[in-house]
């Protein structure tokens, strides 16, 4: 499954990048996130509860950031285990482009694969849920960063 989109955030690029690396901001924006622990500058651990169709699962996952292109670009890879519900793994490439002094264009391309019970739900349900979750995350993220930029 692949997802791609872009969103304009009313904040300078360095502020957007800093927010993308702030566990408190991320926890607030990730749908269903119960816990997010930063183990290092490049390693995070998350506990997320998601309902996809009839399946509700608590995922424990690890995320690794690759920040060599920062603050203009970075990538992340992760994997999560939802017990009997199944497992997921994937990654994303994110680019941040300054659009004037106080606007940033955030673009992402993500790929994910799932297994277990979740994989039996059908790709259309999974794809539409993934798009909704991504949209919800980026809307929340933009709202939080925009609030901080105007404060």
UniProtKB/TrEMBL annotation:
Domain of life: Bacteria
CDD domains hit by this protein: CoxG
Gene3D superfamilies in the record: 3.30.530.20
Coiled-coil ranges from the UniProt annotation: none
Protein name as annotated: Carbon monoxide dehydrogenase subunit G
Source organism: Falsiruegeria litorea
